[in-house]
TrEMBL record:
Pfam family, one: Lactamase_B_2
InterPro entries named in the record: Metallo-B-lactamas, RibonucZ/Hydroxyglut_hydro
Protein name, entry field: MBL fold metallo-hydrolase
Domain Metallo-beta-lactamase residues, every copy: 35-204
GO MF terms held by the record: hydrolase activity
The species this protein was found in: Sphingomonas gei
Keywords: Hydrolase
Amino acid sequence: MLKIRILGSGTSSGVPRIGNDWGACDPEEPRNRRTRASVLVTTDTTSILVDTSPDMRAQLLAANVADVDAVIWTHDHADHTHGIDDLRQLMHLRGEPVRGYARPFTRAQLEAKFAYALFGRAGYRPTVALETLPDSLTIGDIRITVADQPHGGITSAGIRFDSNDKSIGYATDFHDMTSAMRMLYTGLDIWVVDALRRAPHPTHPTLAQVLGWVGELQPRRAALVHMDQSMDYMSLAAELPSGVEPGFDGLEMPA
């Protein structure tokens, strides 16, 4: 069974922000407590982690995950990469570096920032065996298709996962919808998609934009992630149309 687990549903500062800033989010609602954005896509035989957030250790402990078949990085921003050191424990458990994939620009940035993890240093072997993420590849029984998404002055990797006639799309950190993205995200069973906030933002979509794209692309089910402290879970749940829900840390969605 193809499924996705939302490991982290928050934006770069998480919810609450440091200073115990909950914004409009009810602190008594546990689904408002959001770690930084990441997901895990699995079948019975294959497990793929998307991004290594600074909260990855706690996320993998909560999901009871000790190994993955591969890691895909969507882009090189800190909230999506700075948990990379915690892959070292996965490397020790598996006895070899974890397979990793990133688009060319993201790969170059990761290699510059985390050379010690990717190439090893001073007697420490590499943690990750990093390769370039192509437009399509298959890992285990999951077929992966990629489109580059505009994200301010860079691009992020938008990803579609297909297995046994089921499909999941993951779209985070983008601010516009291109024709390649429309093709990628058409006909999905599940779409997990960035909806930062209601107010405009230069590098992320608004709630209204995302709901427009959901209406256009017609996924069977959609969940919102990468949300900031203005996006209260219960308020959103009451206003969203049928088939769309606020994501939360730990939510598992079978396709």
